[in-house]
Write a structure and sequence with these properties.
The chain is of the alpha/beta class. The protein is built from eleven helices and nine strands. 57% of the residues are buried.
């Protein structure tokens, strides 16, 4: 990606402060909200079926994360996704742990048909959602990002959007273009909610960048750079988490332009 693309994306996020509607995992609501605030966006956690559709229509972007889903929140997710589609609001699907559990897998398949702008997950989740795998070990992937490259491209073709596969090197594709984002820190995998917060940051960038692939790459590069900064000063996972939030705030457009992004 051209440096100006990522620099402009970071500046747009700070300037526009998009409102991100998060229907997300109850385990990660606090870190997700804090990550959005640190990056310059505004979070809202509205997951009641009575409100989700209305709020999605006025939000800048929507995140649907099925991490701790139950029947009531599943209905809120359907309503929010339909409302986002009707109003042209970009939205992200994070298919947490799909493949191994029937309820969330069936729900995620329904949501894919509503055409999210970005699907963001690990390799096992993406492969399960595409119908070429059976899922990972709970929320952990048993495959690498490159193992999911074909499934990701096929899934992107179905949604007309972007599929982002997290891994040691993240793989992002819209079915025509493929970009890899390196860097980061292993401490991200030892911090509750870092991946879920990434989904919210993808939504934030979608709200301010016209090209969904550029938006998704900017979010992944932002998270990776912040992790590198935090890992340099952290003693372990306990001190890494707050340092990562500080670093999400510190990453600017110039540093984002120097991220490990490969076309």
């Amino acid at each position: 990606m051209a440096a100006v693309d990522l620099t402009g994306a970071r500046e747009a996020l700070r300037t526009q402060a998009p409102l991100v509607h998060c229907l997300t995992n109850t385990v990660v609501q606090t870190i997700t909200a804090n990550a959005l605030l640190a990056a310059g966006a505004a979070p809202a956690m509205v997951d009641a079926p009575e409100e989700a559709g209305d709020f999605a229509a006025v939000a800048s972007a929507v995140l649907v994360n099925v991490g701790t889903v139950h029947r009531r929140t599943a209905e809120a997710m359907r309503l929010a996704a339909r409302s986002a589609g009707a109003t042209g609001t970009p939205w992200v699907l994070d298919p947490v742990a799909v493949g191994g559990l029937a309820f969330r897998t069936e729900l995620a398949a329904e949501l894919v048909d509503l055409r999210p702008a970005v699907v963001r997950g690990n390799a096992s989740e993406v492969m399960a959602l595409a119908g070429t795998g059976s899922g990972g070990r709970g929320v952990d992937s048993t495959a690498g990002a490159d193992d999911a490259a074909v499934a990701a491209a096929e899934l992107a073709g179905r949604t007309g959007g972007v599929v982002a596969v997290s891994g040691a090197v993240d793989l992002l594709t819209d079915g025509r273009r493929t970009v890899r984002v390196g860097g980061g820190s292993a401490l991200l995998t030892r911090t509750t909610g870092a991946g879920c917060a990434l989904g919210a940051l993808v939504a934030a960038y979608l709200a301010v960048v016209d090209d969904p692939l550029t938006a998704a790459v900017a979010a992944h590069a932002h998270v990776a750079l912040a992790a590198e900064i935090a890992a340099d000063v952290a003693d372990g996972p306990g001190t890494f988490a707050p340092a990562w939030l500080d670093a999400l705030d510190a990453v600017d457009g110039d540093s984002l332009a120097r991220a490990d992004v490969r076309e």
